[in-house]
Amino acid sequence: MPSTSGRSLRLGLFVLAGTAVLVIGLYLLGSKRDLFSRTLTVEAVFQQVGGLRPGNNVRYMGINVGTVQDIAITSDTTVRVRLAIREEAAGHIRTNAVATVGTDGLMGNRLVNLAPGEGDGGPLADGTVLPSSVPLDTDLMLRTLDRTNANLAAITDDVRELAARLNTKGNAVDLLADTVLAHDLSAALREIRIAAEHARSATAGIDAVLGDVREGKGVLGTLVGDPASERQVRGLLGNLRQVSDSLHAATEGINRFAAALNTPGGIAHTLTADTLLTQDLRRTLSRLDTGSALLNEDLRALQRNWFFRGYFKDKEKVLKRGTRTRP
After folding, report:
1. Contact criterion met (CB below 8 Å) for 122 and 129
2. Is it the case that residue 1 has pLDDT exceeding 50?
3. In sequence order, what are the residues at sequence separation of 6 or more whose Cβ sits closer than 8 angstroms to the Cβ of residue 102?
4. Rounded CA separation 39/67 (Å)
5. What distance in Å separates the CA atoms of residue 154 and residue 235, rounded to the nearest whole number?
6. Which pTM was predicted?
7. CB burial string 83-103: b at 16+ within 10 A, e below
8. CB 102 within 8 A of CB 111
9. Quick check: 67 and 59 in contact, CB under 8 A?
10. CB of 38 within 8 A of CB of 126?
């Protein structure tokens, strides 16, 4: 009985040890896929690795060539990734190959992609530090796509609203389709074109006149370019100014005379506005004319009278002698 229990204990310990060895072996095989292959260790430095883990694949031109061996943070901005590359594949990879962190498919595991670099590079060796590039941020791309989808939705709504407005009666499309309006617009455009041609012709004429003026041709050119003509024009303007001043003074005199005529109590106003005085003056002048005629008749009668005839003859002789003695 004691021997049977001892054998059972030893068997249990053996099974437990075998199970532990199997689990450890499976873990090592899972974490290091190239456990039984000869590899080269190279490094690459990234700013961020985005969920990359040891054991993830390393691909060169889409072919698995190794695994991620170790990941370590070297500073607050850089992460060092150590890669295990199989020797048979390392012979095709150069030191200028560019390493980027990518994704196996759209939503698969993270991995390191190696791509040929520009120029010539040496053969890959242990400890080589490969250049790296900024990987494509899938999360950022998805956020950008989400924002783009929102913008497209807003644009689609605006287009739908615009289409509804265009289908409404009385909109701008109906106005453009109106033949009468189109005819009126065509007529207006023709009138504008004719006006533009006239304006162009007028501008050309003005340019020609200005050219003649600059060359001294024509009346304006003579006035502008001839000093003698300029002096004559200035003299004429001075004379016109004097005439204008004289006319102004005469106008002021006429205005004062008119004011005097319109002022009650003055002689001019009395002579022009008092009808009774006017009639009296007319009667007086008529009587003076009559008196002058009668006086002339009386003088003629005196000249014929024998008593005064001698006096008038002597006076006539004196007048004749005075006329002869004048030089």
Report:
1. no
2. no
3. 110, 111, 112, 113, 135, 136
4. 10
5. 80
6. 0.38
7. bbbbeebbeebbbebebbbbb
8. yes
9. no
10. no
**What digits encode the pLDDT tens for the residues 98-150?**
999 888 876 778 899 999 888 788 888 888 899 988 766 666 777 888 888 88
Backbone φ and ψ for 57, nearest 5 degrees, come out as -70, 155
120: amino acid identity, one letter: D
Sequence spans of domains, the chain: 1-31, 40-133, 226-273, 275-317
In the predicted structure, residue 15 carries a pLDDT above the cut 60: yes
Give all strands (DSSP E) within 224-295, no chain letters.
none
- 110-115 and 98-103: which strand pairing? antiparallel
Q: For residue 8, give Cα distances in angstroms to 5, 13, 17, 26, 234.
A: 5, 9, 14, 27, 145
Q: Which one-letter amino acid corresponds to residue 283? A: R
DSSP state of 134: P
